[in-house]
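Run YCII-related domain-containing protein through structure prediction, thanks.
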Amino acid sequence: MRQLKLIWDFRGPDALKIAEHHVIHLKEYITLQNTNLNITGYQELSPMHSIAFMVVDEIEMKPIRDALKPHRGQIYNP
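Sure, done. The structure for YCII-related domain-containing protein is below.
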């Protein structure tokens, strides 16, 4: 089964803190919805750009995408 990485971009001087906080909400969603995977995280790409992400099975992607509205996605390669 293919896995997809849903990504939320945050920009500005507080981008890293916002991305860290967003992961809390992603974990809450995973718990409430009982998704197949529990892979989340955040990453600082530059001092003004950070991301939060969640990995989902491809079969689960559409309802999660529609509910959480990520900015972009890509195939997940662990």
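The helical segments are 15-33, 61-68.
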